[in-house]
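Please check this.
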Amino acid sequence: MQDFDEFSIKLFEESKRFLEKAKLEKDNIAQEAFLHASLLISMSALEAHINSISEELINSPDIDIYNVYERALLSEKDVCFEKGKFGVSQKLKIYRISDRIEFLYYKYSGKIVGPSDTWYAELKKSIDLRNKLVHPKSNILLTIVQVENALHAVLNTINQLYLIIYKSGLPIYSLDLQSKFSF
């Protein structure tokens, strides 16, 4: 699991570095490419962190605190009915990242994500921006501010989950958007 945690962090570091490169770039085409890369990789980093957290929770000795539907959601598997009871199948079932985040937040804080949770509102905007890039229906021009906000949203979301689940913040949170990479 440690390797995957490191990979999750590496993805976010790459995303931050692409944002830094976009800020330094004078050529509009190159800047746009760096912004695209930064946004897309930041969402991969978010997914990787959520998968890492979920995997750790599913494999913990406290597995009984999750009902079959919660285990299915965390493991992204389908629910099946076999031999008179419900269980988690091996069949893949993709859930929205926002559903998984909302579940984890509620399960560990006892609160529903609401309008006062600015970290989540910003994340929803960032996911929408990513979706417009991944499933384009028109030309999308990203700005540095939009991508910065997306990276902050990812960082704040992961940190919020760490705070409520692990009772301590994300170790890389204090680095903010300063990348450790120099490529």
In short: The longest helix spans residues 28-58. The CA atoms of residues 77 and 93 lie 5 Å apart. The first strand starts at residue 77 and ends at 82. The chain has a mean pLDDT of 95.
